[in-house]
Design a protein that fits this description.
G protein-coupled receptor binding; extended; about 20% strand; myristate; two-stranded antiparallel ribbon; 3 helices
Length: about 90
């Protein structure tokens, strides 16, 4: 709230900190592929909303490892699609 005046200024340009604090929920499946020492890696960023989860199963063919990342500060957050239910991350 203390930054509102700065952010709403007509000539506002986001700082590095402003950009780092921006959050955009993932919808769908975003894939990034890269190679390290001849080994191909595919990283998928998937949406966590209930409606997005059914898309995950199609990503598991030929998978060697799964790394699940969850924000530690969201343990007590409400679901976006049901504001009466706590997330089960």
């Amino acid at each position: 709230m203390e930054q509102l005046e700065r952010i709403y200024a007509p000539n506002y340009r986001p700082s590095v900190q402003d950009i780092l604090h921006t959050r955009v929920p993932t919808t769908g499946v975003v894939q990034v592929q890269f190679t390290i020492k001849g080994c191909i890696f595919r990283v998928y960023d998937v949406g966590g909303q209930r409606s997005e989860r059914r898309k995950w199963i199609h990503l598991f063919d030929d998978v060697n490892a799964i790394i699940f990342i969850s924000a530690i500060n969201e343990y007590d957050q409400m679901l976006a699609e049901d504001r009466r239910t706590v997330q089960k991350s």
